[in-house]
Design brief:
The chain is mainly alpha-helical. The chain contains eight helices and four strands; from the N terminus they run H-H-H-H-H-E-E-H-H-E-H-E. The longest helix has 16 residues, at 92-107.
């Protein structure tokens, strides 16, 4: 069983495809810019200091992967505006988690501006892996199961859950 799960982990993991779509420094900085309200090629170029050819390439890849969409600017039809798609908006937790990690382990200082909840004005909580009901999980509480071993939420087998009955591979173990 462990070998089968390990083989699936190597061949069916979506992480390589995700990194192919957005896993490059300039792509993340462009996305940060869009989340901050930038929409035009010239804004990205001026704000990021990125070479025009690299910016053009990265924008095209983000559009190709469905993360951004190109739209004519309603105020100047000669300009193109880049906007997040639903797929792109779902990258927000990834960017927030990377930023928080960088604050803690790389720069050692809080970023500015601070990301806050508009309603309360308070900073957002640290990103964490959690259960379906919101309980935070540590690395030692996580394990890997083959997709076929996951029971429907309302169909736990008699005698316990599928996870309790199936050997799992703990994250960080061999």
């Amino acid at each position: 069983m462990a070998k089968e799960c390990q083989k699936a982990w190597l061949t069916e993991c979506a992480l390589p495809a995700a990194l192919e779509a957005v896993g490059e420094r300039w792509s993340f900085l462009i996305l940060r810019g869009v989340f901050h309200g930038l929409h035009h090629f010239e804004e990205f170029q001026a704000t990021l200091g990125i070479a025009r050819n690299i910016l053009s390439n990265r924008l095209a890849r983000l559009v190709e992967h469905g993360v951004l969409e190109r739209q004519p600017d309603p105020y100047d039809r000669r300009k193109i505006a880049y906007h997040l798609t639903e797929k792109g908006r779902e990258l927000l937790p990834v960017l927030v988690a990377l930023r928080q990690w960088g604050e803690r382990w790389v720069s050692g200082v809080p970023s500015n501006p601070v990301l806050v909840d508009k309603k309360s004005g308070r900073p957002v909580a640290r990103m964490a892996v959690s259960t379906c009901d919101g309980r935070p999980l540590s690395l030692t509480e996580l394990g890997w199961l083959d997709r076929s071993q996951i029971a429907a939420p309302d169909a736990a087998p008699a005698g316990g859950s599928a996870i309790e009955q199936t050997p799992t591979r703990r994250i960080g173990s061999r």
